[in-house]
Write a structure and sequence with these properties.
This protein is α/β, with parallel strands linked by helices. Helix content is 32%, strand content 24%. Strands 4-5-6-7-8-9-10-11-12-13 form a 10-stranded antiparallel beta sheet. It has a 7-stranded parallel beta sheet with strand order 3-2-1-14-15-16-17. The chain has a 6-stranded parallel beta sheet with strand order 20-19-18-21-22-23, sandwiched between helices. A hairpin with a 5-residue loop joins strand 8 and strand 9. Helix 9 packs parallel to helix 10 and helix 9 packs across helix 14. The chain is globular and about 75 Å long.
Length: 532
Amino acid sequence: MIFHINATMPEQKSGIEHAEIQRFMLFKKNHIAQKLILRDWNPECHRQTRAAGIDDDDLINMFDYFQKATIVATQQLTIKNLDFGVVDLEFNDEPQNNRYLVVDNSKKLVARVNYNNAETQRVKSVELFDGFGNLYRVDHYDIRGFKSLQQWYTPDNKIESETWLDVHGQPVLESFFKTTKTVNHQSELTRTNWHLTFNEISYDFDTIEDLTIYFLDAINQTFFNTLEPNIFILDRSHLADYGLLHLKNPAYTVLHLHNSHAGDAQEPMQSVLNNNYEFAMNALNQYDAVVSATPQQTRDIKLRFQPSVPLFTIPVGIVKDTLLHAKRVRVGERQFGKVVAFARIAWEKHLDDLVRAVGIVKEEIPEVSLDLYGYADPTDNFRAKRAVEAVIDKYHLGDSVTMKGYTTDIDAVENRAMIYGLTSRMEGFNLAIMEGIAHGLIALSYDVNYGPNEIVQDNINGKIVPYGDYQAMANAMLTVLRDPRLAQRYSDGAYQSAERYSETNVMAAWQKLIEDANQKWQHKIAATNLGR
């Protein structure tokens, strides 16, 4: 059994979630037994995973597991199904706020019932108030129609404890809080411990990481098979970088790097480690395998860390057969001068440089335009978005550069556009530029590690320009826009170069890792038995 480990599967997915889904679907197509493991509690989890094409049978959420709610029939829960324990209540609908106000016969507020939308009014949460108007509890309901979490509040409106319930309303998992002082003498809530009652046995854990270790052990034990290994693929290292190394029963553990292991990807040998991977990189030899998305990162890891475990190079992106064989769109049929980028508007994406390049190009070619698809990172009061807006104002690009927000309509956008632009500070692969070349977009990228400077093949499917040089990026755009024949050659090269990431090629790379796991399994079992 293969397990893919992540935190959640949000609606606005990052590259890690997109890569994980593509891998999951590829394995499913090849009839490989697998489960998606999600660590964090999310009442919308099953709606989001179903929308991503992942069935409930293929999913194990840690909280679902302890609540014995991995498979639950969905029922529509509305305010009519709720019992407040009080008679003669009045229900006042506020559709503008997606909620009901529930009051008693003396007009005192009993509850606020929050629902998803005015049409279905599916209950999401219920806020309960005491006779003095104080909030004392919030009940959160799972998308499938049962009460999942109760949050208990103190008189000063702070969460005191949280209780997760099974489908019969019985408590199974509790977590407690205390108030502590920060260095700035501000009060904040700190989670103190977790108490689990599972299969009629009680357990206490200091942290969610300790709880996660117990969960992974239970999963590994449930699916343990001496004939073939459980393969755990860790897509977000902070979730289980310690836990996977301390399983009670043997398994085949895989550290999957989705980003640069180095804090400065342009200095991979000398720079400090990416803090997201610091523990894992210092414990490489305790894993059974390490996966990088590009040959260059694999080489750099081998050179810097000299690990004894096998290193595998497997693209995180997959171009579906249907896209590879889709009708090609010629450059003349596309919107002249349309540049696109699919990325979070975040510091590391450096999209303000891409806007600068477009501003320079516009001085010669007024038709040039740029559409940015992706949600804005709120870090530092939306610092990256503000940087983009400042450049738009400086170059007077209000009618040429548009922040479109998050979209899933990639095919339509990329079949109309002409150029994909990338000016990132660091990458781990970059699914978006891979999808761009698969749609025939001319790829223009900074010479950035890792991924773009390998996905983009200089003078074949686009142009690689010096890192951080937006003037060179502008010159590359101008060269393409001035020369229709060159533009068509690059577009043809883009379509052809996407074959590297076909389903067949990527599956063959994963098959090598699976074969390594199977070959080493009996030796691992024998070593474990000898140790006992």
